[in-house]
C-alpha cells in the first residue's frame, strides 16, 4: 500500500473511532438525563363517593450501580419527584444492577437509602424484580423495611381506598397471582391495583383491576432507527413494550425505568416515571 492510501485509511479509521466515541457518549448522556414525568388519568367506575382522586407515582428499574446510577444521583431524582406530591408511590422492582460493566456495586443499605427519602401520605410500596432476586433478596427486603418501605411479594395491603396487590417477579418464576388475588380479596372492598416488576403477568390476571403498574422492559433501552428495540425482555415481544397500554380491557402502565441494565446506554428511550391520577369519571386534579 502506497503512502497516500495509507494516510487515507488512517484518517477514515480515526474518523470512525471518533464517531463511535461520540455515539457512546450520547448514549451515556441519555442514560443519565433527568427522567421524563409522564401523566395519565384512570377513570374508576366504582370510585368511592366523597373520596378525592389520588395521584400514584410509578418508578421502576432504578438499577443502582456505577457509573450511571450511584445512590447520590437517585437521591437527587427522588428529591425532584417529591415535588410532584404523589399520594402513593409504587416501585416496580430492579433496585440494583450487577451488570458486568458496573464500576461499583453498592450494599443493600446504600441501594435502598435514597428510596427512604420518598414522601407520600399513603406510603411507598415495592415489588421485587429479577435483579433483586439475583443479588441479595433477603438483605434488600430487610433494608427496605428498615427504611419504612412496604415490600409486597404475592401479598396485598390497603392504602386509603386502594387495595394494592404486589406480584413477585415473573421473570425468575417467583410470581403467584392466585395468592396475590386471595390476599387482595381478604382485605375487603376497595379499588384494586397491582404493582409488578414485569408486565407479562397481565394475560394471567384472574380479573381486571383498575390499573397495573410495571417496569422491566426499559422501553427497549436501546431502540435504534429502522431496527427498533434490541429486546424488551418479554415473552410477549412488544405487546407490553412501553407506556400507557390497554390490553384486552386491562389498563397498564409500563415505565422505561430510571437506570440501565447490561450497558449504561440509552437510545430513544429516556428514563421516565408515571404520575397517574385515579378517580371518578370526569374528575381532574
UniProtKB/TrEMBL annotation:
Keyword Metal-binding attributed: yes
Sorted alphabetically, which keywords does the UniProt record give?
A: Hydrolase, Metal-binding
Classification via CDD domains: MPP_YkuE_C
List residues of the Calcineurin-like phosphoesterase domain.
54-219
Question: Which Gene3D superfamilies does the entry link to?
Answer: 3.60.21.10
Name of protein:
Metallophosphoesterase
Species source reads Sphingopyxis soli
